[in-house]
Amino acid sequence: MSGDPAVEEQRGDQQSREMDADRSKESTDIHEKDPQGAPETGEGPLPEEESWTAVDPSMVENLSIGLLEICLPSLQKSKSSLDDLLQNQQFLTESVQQENSKFADCRDIEELSKTMNQSRKYHTKLINLKKEMNFLSDKGVKLKRRALKIQQQKQKEDLQRVQQRMREQEREKMLEAKVVKRSQSPT
């Protein structure tokens, strides 16, 4: 069995010719035997053990070759079918593995999507906090200005009160002084 189809075909043709020749020889041998299968020589039927030893080795070889010729094409077809099946199975296995990896990627994408959604929420919260902090900062600046104005106004009012008191005290002193001067002067 060299594996070369041309050589095997030539060998098969030769073997089939030999088998045809052997068959024709067997058929003539069968016709010469009596109905019980014994040769016409008058010896009678052969015991079973002797019939196995009486088989011609070339006949066994030819029958084996014939059987191979009959079975070999179907076996080769079966082998090629099995090879195709194994190849398809390998392809399907790889396809399933690729699909599984896609599903794993989909899970990763889902997790990434969830993370992105959370980051958007946190970003929105951060923007709102910044706005609120800016608002509070502006409000704080306004309150500081107002407090400064109020403080300045209080200081001004306090200064005015102090000045007013000082004026009143001066007026009182002036009034007292005039009264004193009148009492000191001899009239």
Characterization of the model:
The radius of gyration is 63 Å and the shape is rod-shaped. The chain is mainly α. 87% of the residues lie in helices and 0% in strands. It has a domain at 1-34 and 59-70. InterPro entries: BLOC-1_pallidin, Snapin/Pallidin/Snn1. Belongs to the BLOC1S6 family. Residues 1-57, 154-187 are annotated as: Disordered. Component of the biogenesis of lysosome-related organelles complex-1 (BLOC-1) involved in pigment granule biogenesis. This is Biogenesis of lysosome-related organelles complex 1 subunit 6.
Write the layout of secondary structure elements.
Blueprint (H helix, E strand, L loop, with lengths): L4 H28 L15 H6 L3 H128 L3
Protein name: Biogenesis of lysosome-related organelles complex 1 subunit 6
Main location: cytoplasm
Keywords: Cytoplasm
